[in-house]
Design brief:
hydrolase; EC 3.5.4.2; disordered C terminus; Ado/ade_deaminase; 2 domains; alpha/beta; Adenosine deaminase; 20 helices; adenine deaminase activity
């Protein structure tokens, strides 16, 4: 790139204006991670405002925080050392392994202060990556069944968001997700408690705009939770389920799409790539996909990032966004997902900006706010050269 710039400087017959146009086109098309210092590309990306739509509170529990909370709550830690836990996280390869460790470690969260500190750490990490809008999922039933008080959970995370935003401009929406491998009756009971709490707590109510559906998809079709969906819609809550992360659950994507008005967004959905009719239906229903590339490779059915369907989905006209899912268990944050996917699929700057714009278009933000942030994205200029 530097040699090309020097060459252009010496070509007198090309007008300076035309050189500038050509240089801008090269910057736009030059791959985000190609031939530049990795740290610089990361910083460049961090400076662009982004929305992060699929991240789990519990999935942000780092080894350091787990140890802190477990010791503070006088729990018997089942790991020989912190390195032992880190090794187990590093060696995760399946969804079942991940869920087992994920829920076991969540037991360290017991008090309001634990939830407050975990949420605060999550917000700080996201803010450093240039995230300006967050939609955070959390699993209330994984805590309530252990005897955690709903008020401690919700008071803690709500207070953390409010305190953090005294000094920043990070907008946050909260999405309680229900465990699909548990009975629908449990989810209905918990949702009713959440609705009641929201009526008593205006600050939580303002952030509580949707519900999710996560955990093990196997043998847990959407039809199992239709009463839950009805209750959510009756209370003006959007529905944003996980779907199609596991190859055995691919048919469940179609079930979510029987009625175009059922869901507002689908988390993962990577298995839609194997069915042309599902892709067609996603386009007809205008359902965005919140992809989590590193998650879908490390604990999902995709072999490697080079075979991830993200670019294929873009070519098919689907609206997709890039997300981190569970950064503490995947050793990868949001920027890692953008950068690693970009490198594997040879995405260029235009592709990356499109994905970032999609993150706002796929969000639950009001359109005026979406437009505001998209203008900021379009203004950003990353001259990706070796000197950055």
């Amino acid at each position: 790139m530097i040699l090309l710039i020097r060459l252009l400087r010496n070509i007198n017959m090309i007008a300076k204006k035309e050189v500038a146009k050509l240089f801008f086109i090269l910057i736009l098309l030059f791959p985000l991670t190609g031939h530049v210092n990795g740290h610089s590309a990361r910083q460049c990306l961090a400076n662009i405002p982004k929305a992060h739509l699929s991240i789990h509170l519990e999935g942000s529990l780092t080894t350091k925080l787990y140890w802190k909370f477990a010791e503070r709550n006088h729990l018997k830690i089942p790991y020989a050392s912190r390195q032992d836990l880190k090794n187990r996280i590093e060696n995760l390869t399946t969804l079942s392994q991940f869920l087992s460790l994920y829920y076991a470690n969540s037991e360290a969260l017991q008090k309001k202060q634990d939830y407050y500190e975990l949420m605060t750490a999550l917000l700080r990490a996201q803010h450093k990556q240039g995230v300006v809008h967050l939609e955070i999922q959390f699993d209330p039933d994984s805590h309530l069944h252990r005897g955690v008080k709903l008020n401690d959970l919700l008071d803690g995370i709500t207070a953390a968001v409010d305190d953090f935003n005294k000094h920043t401009r990070l907008s946050v929406l909260l999405i309680p997700a229900f465990l699909r491998d548990k009975p629908q009756e449990l989810a209905l009971s918990t949702l009713n408690k959440l609705i009641y709490y929201a009526k008593q707590h205006a600050k939580f109510k303002a952030k509580f705009v949707a519900i999710g559906l996560d955990s093990d998809e196997k043998d847990n079709p959407p039809s199992k939770f239709y009463k839950l969906f009805e209750l959510a819609r009756k209370n003006n809550l959007k529905i944003i389920p996980h779907g199609g992360h596991d190859e055995l659950a691919q048919p469940y994507i179609s079930e979510f799409l029987i009625n175009c008005n059922l869901i507002s967004r689908l988390d993962h959905g990577n298995m839609a790539s194997s069915d042309k009719q599902v892709i067609k239906r996603l386009k007809q229903c205008k359902i965005p996909l919140a992809l989590c590339p590193i998650s879908e490779v490390k604990i999902g059915p995709i072999n490697n990032l080079a075979s991830h369907p993200a670019h294929f989905f873009m070519k098919q006209g689907l609206v997709i966004s890039i997300n981190a899912d569970d950064p503490a268990y995947l050793n990868a944050d949001l920027l890692d997902n953008y950068l690693e996917l970009s490198k594997a699929l040879r995405l260029n700057n235009r592709d990356i900006k499109k994905l970032i714009i999609n993150s706002f278009r796929s969000s639950l933000l009001k359109k005026t706010m979406q437009d505001k942030w998209i203008k900021e994205v379009l203004k950003s200029r990353c001259a990706l050269t070796e000197k950055i």
